[in-house]
Design a protein that fits this description.
The protein has 8 helices and 12 strands. By secondary structure, the protein is α/β, with parallel strands linked by helices. It has one domain: 3-Layer(aba) Sandwich (Rossmann fold). Helix 1 runs parallel beside helix 5. The longest helix is centred in the middle third of the chain and has 13 residues. The protein is globular. The protein starts with 7 loop residues before the first helix and ends with a strand. The relative contact order is 0.17. The model has no long low-confidence stretch (mean pLDDT 95).
């Protein structure tokens, strides 16, 4: 099958936004495939239909907000509805088009690795929807966390969702985790792409960590793990700046 646009995620969001039934397919580099019909509606859902964990997490969001991997713009729209200012960034052209069509005032085609002080300073960085994974890998993740530290105010905060990779007994996943460790990677570092119909994103690294692994990852970056909000499947970490940094 020939890849048509290279933006499988964006095409999926555009179809969902236009009322079409959209199935999100995530393919891992070992051949494992998962499919979800629940993801696309969530990316566009109003606040009252968000998972309870996400609604709880938004209580820790304050001030000017940077939404990393903004998808369909639900976080930005909620912040706007509360009278706040939000900037949404995503590498998917389709996602940014959906954001703008839905009324997000500031949605930019930009990757997390390309953010700089031209965006201004933020009080909160939001990375819901497992988007802590956009840190990609240990070394790259530390560099990105230091960059986010420089782009946030003294009361800066990161509200980010992840999944503990040890929370599975699926032998397929356990073999993948073990192979990662043999290669010197964190167990929960996955290489994936999103497919939709005849379109696919490029392959990218996505990092899932336990709270303990997260604490090791943020050591020396100017952040500390202030609290975690738990659910049956994932957790949200609230990171705050360490004193003296």
């Amino acid at each position: 099958m020939t890849e048509r646009t290279g933006d499988g995620y964006g095409q999926m969001l555009l179809d969902a936004f236009e009322g079409k039934r959209a199935v999100e397919i995530v393919e891992r580099d070992d051949g494992f495939i998962s499919a979800s019909v629940g993801g696309p509606p969530l990316y566009l859902a109003p606040f009252r239909r968000w998972p309870a964990l996400h609604r709880r997490a938004m209580r820790f969001v304050r001030g000017r907000v940077l939404d990393v991997g903004c998808g369909g713009g639900r976080v930005c729209l909620h912040v706007q509805e509360r009278g706040g200012e939000a900037v949404g960034i995503d590498i998917s052209p389709g996602a940014i088009e959906v954001c703008r069509r839905r009324g997000v005032r500031d949605a930019r085609l930009l990757g997390i690795e390309d953010i700089d002080d031209s965006l201004g300073r933020f009080d909160t960085v939001v990375m819901l929807g497992n988007n802590l994974g956009l840190l990609a890998a240990a070394d790259k993740g530390r560099d990105l966390l230091r960059r986010l530290h420089a782009l946030t105010t003294e009361r800066g905060r990161i509200v980010a969702e992840s999944r503990d990779p040890a929370g599975t007994d699926d032998p397929v996943h356990l073999r993948y985790h073990a192979a990662n460790v043999r290669r010197g990677r964190l167990p929960g570092q996955v290489t994936i792409r999103v497919r939709y119909r005849d379109a696919a994103t490029p392959w990218f690294d996505y990092l899932m960590v336990s709270p303990a692994q997260l604490e090791e990852l943020i050591d020396g970056t100017g952040w500390r793990l202030a609290r975690t909000l738990e659910s049956d499947d994932t957790y949200v970490a609230v990171l705050e700046k360490t004193r003296g940094r």
